[in-house]
Amino acid sequence: MTPPMYSEKMNKIYEYNQINNKVNKLMVKKELLLKKESNNKTLEKARELLKKKVEFHKYWIDKLYSITFYTHIVLVFLVLALLLYKLL
Hints:
Structural class: mainly alpha
């Protein structure tokens, strides 16, 4: 037979090891979650930057289309004016 004190110590040691294993698993999960969170923040920042770039380029493309449109209108009027001048 084992003395009761020895059995009690073994139970406490076993319980300590179980708690220690749980704490270690939680620490690993915590590190994994922190890594995922930092990746998510990085992705969010990248999305924001891409969104700003797309908005910037879209703005300038619209501006260039309008400039091109008005330039064509002016050139058409100039060509028509020159044709009328030459014909008359």
